[in-house]
Amino acid sequence: MKTIPISFCFDNNFEMPACVCLTSLLVNAEADTFYDIFILHSDKCTFSAGKINELPERYRNCKITYRSVGREFEKAFEIRGITFAAYYRLLIPTIIPEYDKIIYSDVDVIFRNDLTHIYESTDLTDFYMAGVVSVSACDDTGYTKYLEGLGLNPLDYIYSGNLIINSKRLREDGIVPKFIEEASRTKYKYQDMDIINIICNGRIKRLPPAFCLSVSVNKYASYRLENPCYSQQELEEALQHGIIHYNGAKPWKQYCPHFDIWWEYYRKSIGYDQQYYFDFFAQKMHEYDLMPLWERVKILLRWFIGLKNRFRS
Q1: Domains plus CATH for the chain?
Q2: Global confidence as pTM
Protein backbone atom coordinates (compact mmCIF):
# COMPACT_ATOMS: atom_id res chain seq x y z
CA MET A 1 0.00 0.00 0.00
CA LYS A 2 1.36 3.43 -1.00
CA THR A 3 0.46 6.33 1.29
CA ILE A 4 -0.09 9.71 -0.38
CA PRO A 5 -0.53 12.67 2.01
CA ILE A 6 -2.82 15.40 0.74
CA SER A 7 -4.16 18.53 2.42
CA PHE A 8 -7.13 20.83 1.91
CA CYS A 9 -8.15 24.14 3.49
CA PHE A 10 -11.77 25.22 3.69
CA ASP A 11 -14.58 26.26 6.01
CA ASN A 12 -18.15 25.04 6.55
CA ASN A 13 -19.39 26.98 3.52
CA PHE A 14 -17.40 24.69 1.22
CA GLU A 15 -18.28 21.38 2.84
CA MET A 16 -20.57 20.26 0.01
CA PRO A 17 -18.07 20.86 -2.83
CA ALA A 18 -15.38 19.35 -0.59
CA CYS A 19 -17.44 16.14 -0.41
CA VAL A 20 -17.57 16.03 -4.20
CA CYS A 21 -13.85 16.77 -4.51
CA LEU A 22 -12.87 14.05 -2.03
CA THR A 23 -15.24 11.59 -3.68
CA SER A 24 -13.47 12.13 -7.02
CA LEU A 25 -10.11 11.62 -5.29
CA LEU A 26 -11.14 8.34 -3.69
CA VAL A 27 -13.14 6.94 -6.60
CA ASN A 28 -10.10 7.27 -8.86
CA ALA A 29 -7.58 5.82 -6.42
CA GLU A 30 -5.66 2.72 -7.45
CA ALA A 31 -6.19 -0.42 -5.38
CA ASP A 32 -2.85 0.02 -3.58
CA THR A 33 -3.17 3.77 -2.89
CA PHE A 34 -4.02 5.06 0.57
CA TYR A 35 -4.78 8.79 0.97
CA ASP A 36 -3.85 10.39 4.29
CA ILE A 37 -6.14 13.43 4.12
CA PHE A 38 -5.67 16.54 6.25
CA ILE A 39 -8.21 19.34 6.48
CA LEU A 40 -6.95 22.68 7.78
CA HIS A 41 -9.55 25.01 9.27
CA SER A 42 -10.03 27.88 11.70
CA ASP A 43 -11.13 27.26 15.28
CA LYS A 44 -14.53 28.70 14.35
CA CYS A 45 -15.32 25.78 12.05
CA THR A 46 -16.76 22.46 13.06
CA PHE A 47 -17.22 19.40 10.87
CA SER A 48 -18.42 17.06 13.61
CA ALA A 49 -21.76 16.26 11.96
CA GLY A 50 -20.67 16.64 8.35
CA LYS A 51 -20.91 14.11 5.55
CA ILE A 52 -17.15 14.24 5.09
CA ASN A 53 -16.73 12.12 8.21
CA GLU A 54 -18.62 9.29 6.53
CA LEU A 55 -16.12 9.00 3.68
CA PRO A 56 -13.70 6.60 5.46
CA GLU A 57 -16.63 4.27 6.07
CA ARG A 58 -17.43 4.12 2.36
CA TYR A 59 -13.82 4.23 1.13
CA ARG A 60 -11.38 2.18 3.21
CA ASN A 61 -8.39 3.63 1.39
CA CYS A 62 -8.30 6.89 3.34
CA LYS A 63 -8.00 8.56 6.72
CA ILE A 64 -9.22 12.09 7.49
CA THR A 65 -7.56 14.30 10.09
CA TYR A 66 -8.65 17.82 11.02
CA ARG A 67 -6.07 20.40 12.04
CA SER A 68 -7.02 23.79 13.43
CA VAL A 69 -4.87 26.77 12.51
CA GLY A 70 -6.44 28.78 15.32
CA ARG A 71 -7.16 32.34 14.22
CA GLU A 72 -4.13 32.79 12.01
CA PHE A 73 -4.66 35.16 9.06
CA GLU A 74 -8.07 36.42 10.31
CA LYS A 75 -6.97 39.97 9.51
CA ALA A 76 -5.25 39.08 6.24
CA PHE A 77 -6.23 40.83 3.02
CA GLU A 78 -9.33 39.49 1.25
CA ILE A 79 -10.36 40.24 -2.34
CA ARG A 80 -12.67 38.86 -5.08
CA GLY A 81 -14.64 36.91 -2.45
CA ILE A 82 -11.61 34.79 -1.51
CA THR A 83 -11.46 34.60 2.28
CA PHE A 84 -8.49 34.36 4.65
CA ALA A 85 -8.81 30.55 4.59
CA ALA A 86 -6.85 30.73 1.32
CA TYR A 87 -3.74 31.55 3.35
CA TYR A 88 -3.89 28.36 5.43
CA ARG A 89 -1.89 26.43 2.82
CA LEU A 90 1.10 28.55 3.79
CA LEU A 91 1.15 26.83 7.19
CA ILE A 92 1.11 23.23 5.93
CA PRO A 93 4.80 22.44 6.71
CA THR A 94 4.32 23.28 10.41
CA ILE A 95 0.68 22.23 10.88
CA ILE A 96 1.38 18.83 9.28
CA PRO A 97 4.93 18.07 10.46
CA GLU A 98 4.74 14.31 10.00
CA TYR A 99 5.37 14.51 6.26
CA ASP A 100 8.36 15.93 4.39
CA LYS A 101 6.47 16.14 1.09
CA ILE A 102 2.73 16.66 0.69
CA ILE A 103 0.16 17.53 -1.96
CA TYR A 104 -2.13 20.52 -1.47
CA SER A 105 -5.39 21.04 -3.37
CA ASP A 106 -8.29 23.45 -3.33
CA VAL A 107 -11.72 21.81 -3.07
CA ASP A 108 -13.23 23.36 -6.22
CA VAL A 109 -11.48 20.51 -7.98
CA ILE A 110 -12.29 17.20 -9.64
CA PHE A 111 -9.61 14.49 -9.69
CA ARG A 112 -9.71 12.11 -12.63
CA ASN A 113 -6.62 10.00 -11.91
CA ASP A 114 -4.66 8.47 -9.07
CA LEU A 115 -1.98 10.82 -7.68
CA THR A 116 0.67 8.26 -6.81
CA HIS A 117 2.75 8.70 -9.96
CA ILE A 118 2.90 12.51 -9.90
CA TYR A 119 3.64 12.47 -6.16
CA GLU A 120 6.43 9.88 -6.30
CA SER A 121 8.01 11.09 -9.55
CA THR A 122 8.26 14.76 -8.56
CA ASP A 123 11.76 15.29 -7.15
CA LEU A 124 11.79 18.42 -4.98
CA THR A 125 15.36 18.13 -3.69
CA ASP A 126 16.29 21.63 -4.86
CA PHE A 127 12.79 23.16 -4.77
CA TYR A 128 10.31 24.49 -2.23
CA MET A 129 7.19 23.97 -4.34
CA ALA A 130 5.98 22.42 -7.56
CA GLY A 131 2.98 23.62 -9.53
CA VAL A 132 1.48 24.50 -12.90
CA VAL A 133 2.44 27.75 -14.58
CA SER A 134 -0.43 30.19 -15.08
CA VAL A 135 -0.80 30.33 -18.87
CA SER A 136 -2.77 33.57 -18.68
CA ALA A 137 0.15 35.18 -16.87
CA CYS A 138 2.35 34.34 -19.85
CA ASP A 139 0.54 36.44 -22.46
CA ASP A 140 -1.94 38.76 -20.74
CA THR A 141 -0.30 42.21 -20.90
CA GLY A 142 -1.88 43.53 -17.72
CA TYR A 143 -1.13 40.36 -15.80
CA THR A 144 2.45 40.30 -17.10
CA LYS A 145 3.11 43.89 -16.05
CA TYR A 146 1.67 43.22 -12.60
CA LEU A 147 3.98 40.23 -12.04
CA GLU A 148 7.01 42.00 -13.42
CA GLY A 149 6.25 44.79 -10.96
CA LEU A 150 6.61 42.20 -8.20
CA GLY A 151 9.97 41.14 -9.58
CA LEU A 152 8.59 37.88 -10.96
CA ASN A 153 9.00 36.17 -14.32
CA PRO A 154 5.49 35.45 -15.69
CA LEU A 155 6.80 32.26 -17.32
CA ASP A 156 7.56 30.86 -13.85
CA TYR A 157 4.44 32.05 -12.00
CA ILE A 158 2.44 29.05 -10.73
CA TYR A 159 -1.14 28.56 -9.59
CA SER A 160 -1.52 27.89 -5.87
CA GLY A 161 -4.66 25.72 -6.11
CA ASN A 162 -2.73 22.50 -6.78
CA LEU A 163 0.74 22.16 -5.30
CA ILE A 164 3.33 19.62 -4.27
CA ILE A 165 5.12 21.03 -1.23
CA ASN A 166 8.62 20.28 0.03
CA SER A 167 7.67 20.69 3.67
CA LYS A 168 11.03 19.49 4.96
CA ARG A 169 13.00 22.14 3.08
CA LEU A 170 10.51 24.88 3.97
CA ARG A 171 10.88 24.01 7.66
CA GLU A 172 14.66 23.80 7.49
CA ASP A 173 14.97 27.18 5.77
CA GLY A 174 12.45 28.95 8.02
CA ILE A 175 10.14 29.87 5.14
CA VAL A 176 6.78 29.63 6.93
CA PRO A 177 7.47 32.69 9.16
CA LYS A 178 8.34 34.58 5.98
CA PHE A 179 4.99 33.55 4.47
CA ILE A 180 3.19 34.83 7.57
CA GLU A 181 5.11 38.10 7.62
CA GLU A 182 4.41 38.75 3.95
CA ALA A 183 0.70 38.06 4.41
CA SER A 184 0.49 40.46 7.34
CA ARG A 185 2.24 43.44 5.77
CA THR A 186 1.21 43.54 2.09
CA LYS A 187 -2.13 43.46 0.28
CA TYR A 188 -1.40 41.34 -2.75
CA LYS A 189 -3.92 41.14 -5.57
CA TYR A 190 -3.63 37.36 -5.79
CA GLN A 191 -3.09 36.81 -2.07
CA ASP A 192 -1.46 33.47 -1.17
CA MET A 193 -0.55 32.81 -4.81
CA ASP A 194 1.54 35.97 -5.01
CA ILE A 195 3.16 35.24 -1.66
CA ILE A 196 4.18 31.70 -2.65
CA ASN A 197 5.65 32.89 -5.93
CA ILE A 198 7.52 35.80 -4.31
CA ILE A 199 9.00 33.94 -1.33
CA CYS A 200 9.79 30.77 -3.28
CA ASN A 201 11.04 32.59 -6.38
CA GLY A 202 13.79 30.57 -8.05
CA ARG A 203 12.91 27.44 -6.06
CA ILE A 204 9.69 26.44 -7.84
CA LYS A 205 9.43 23.41 -10.10
CA ARG A 206 7.13 23.45 -13.12
CA LEU A 207 4.61 20.59 -13.36
CA PRO A 208 2.65 19.53 -16.47
CA PRO A 209 -0.70 21.31 -16.93
CA ALA A 210 -2.56 18.05 -16.23
CA PHE A 211 -1.89 18.72 -12.54
CA CYS A 212 -4.13 21.81 -12.73
CA LEU A 213 -6.57 22.14 -15.64
CA SER A 214 -7.56 25.69 -14.74
CA VAL A 215 -10.03 27.82 -16.68
CA SER A 216 -7.18 29.39 -18.67
CA VAL A 217 -5.41 26.09 -19.34
CA ASN A 218 -8.73 24.68 -20.52
CA LYS A 219 -9.17 27.60 -22.95
CA TYR A 220 -5.73 27.12 -24.49
CA ALA A 221 -6.23 23.36 -24.73
CA SER A 222 -9.78 23.45 -26.11
CA TYR A 223 -9.07 26.01 -28.82
CA ARG A 224 -5.50 24.82 -29.53
CA LEU A 225 -4.04 28.24 -28.76
CA GLU A 226 -0.28 28.51 -28.67
CA ASN A 227 1.45 29.77 -25.55
CA PRO A 228 5.05 29.93 -24.30
CA CYS A 229 4.41 27.76 -21.24
CA TYR A 230 3.30 24.35 -22.51
CA SER A 231 3.20 22.29 -25.69
CA GLN A 232 -0.03 21.32 -27.43
CA GLN A 233 0.56 17.71 -26.43
CA GLU A 234 0.81 18.67 -22.75
CA LEU A 235 -2.36 20.77 -23.04
CA GLU A 236 -4.15 17.91 -24.80
CA GLU A 237 -3.24 15.50 -22.00
CA ALA A 238 -4.51 18.02 -19.46
CA LEU A 239 -7.82 18.33 -21.29
CA GLN A 240 -8.28 14.58 -21.50
CA HIS A 241 -7.14 13.48 -18.05
CA GLY A 242 -6.12 16.49 -15.97
CA ILE A 243 -7.25 17.59 -12.53
CA ILE A 244 -10.07 20.04 -13.25
CA HIS A 245 -9.77 23.21 -11.20
CA TYR A 246 -12.89 25.40 -11.29
CA ASN A 247 -10.96 28.52 -10.36
CA GLY A 248 -13.54 30.77 -12.00
CA ALA A 249 -17.28 30.11 -12.12
CA LYS A 250 -18.39 27.32 -9.78
CA PRO A 251 -20.41 24.47 -11.34
CA TRP A 252 -22.69 24.16 -8.31
CA LYS A 253 -23.75 27.76 -8.96
CA GLN A 254 -23.72 28.28 -12.73
CA TYR A 255 -22.69 26.96 -16.13
CA CYS A 256 -18.94 26.72 -16.75
CA PRO A 257 -16.42 24.50 -18.58
CA HIS A 258 -16.68 20.85 -17.46
CA PHE A 259 -19.87 21.68 -15.59
CA ASP A 260 -21.22 18.23 -16.43
CA ILE A 261 -18.20 16.37 -15.01
CA TRP A 262 -18.62 18.04 -11.62
CA TRP A 263 -22.27 17.01 -11.49
CA GLU A 264 -21.37 13.42 -12.42
CA TYR A 265 -19.26 13.27 -9.27
CA TYR A 266 -21.90 15.06 -7.25
CA ARG A 267 -24.27 12.18 -8.04
CA LYS A 268 -21.61 9.75 -6.80
CA SER A 269 -20.79 11.74 -3.68
CA ILE A 270 -21.80 10.90 -0.15
CA GLY A 271 -23.55 14.27 0.07
CA TYR A 272 -25.85 13.64 -2.91
CA ASP A 273 -29.30 15.15 -2.38
CA GLN A 274 -31.82 14.19 -5.06
CA GLN A 275 -34.10 17.16 -4.38
CA TYR A 276 -31.22 19.65 -4.50
CA TYR A 277 -30.07 18.09 -7.77
CA PHE A 278 -33.53 18.32 -9.33
CA ASP A 279 -34.18 21.88 -8.11
CA PHE A 280 -30.83 23.13 -9.41
CA PHE A 281 -31.35 21.79 -12.92
CA ALA A 282 -34.99 22.83 -13.02
CA GLN A 283 -33.88 26.39 -12.22
CA LYS A 284 -31.13 26.28 -14.84
CA MET A 285 -33.52 25.03 -17.50
CA HIS A 286 -35.87 27.87 -16.64
CA GLU A 287 -33.01 30.38 -16.97
CA TYR A 288 -32.03 28.79 -20.29
CA ASP A 289 -35.58 29.08 -21.63
CA LEU A 290 -35.59 32.79 -20.84
CA MET A 291 -32.35 33.45 -22.73
CA PRO A 292 -32.34 35.03 -26.21
CA LEU A 293 -31.99 32.47 -29.00
CA TRP A 294 -28.40 33.42 -29.81
CA GLU A 295 -27.31 32.96 -26.18
CA ARG A 296 -28.80 29.49 -26.15
CA VAL A 297 -27.05 28.62 -29.42
CA LYS A 298 -23.69 29.76 -27.99
CA ILE A 299 -24.15 27.54 -24.93
CA LEU A 300 -24.91 24.54 -27.14
CA LEU A 301 -21.91 25.26 -29.37
CA ARG A 302 -19.59 25.46 -26.36
CA TRP A 303 -21.01 22.21 -25.06
CA PHE A 304 -20.49 20.41 -28.39
CA ILE A 305 -16.93 21.74 -28.68
CA GLY A 306 -16.15 20.54 -25.17
CA LEU A 307 -17.70 17.14 -25.88
CA LYS A 308 -15.73 16.81 -29.12
CA ASN A 309 -12.46 17.72 -27.42
CA ARG A 310 -13.05 15.34 -24.54
CA PHE A 311 -13.38 12.37 -26.88
CA ARG A 312 -10.76 13.52 -29.36
CA SER A 313 -8.33 10.72 -30.04
Answers
A1: 2-245 (3.90.550.10)
A2: 0.90
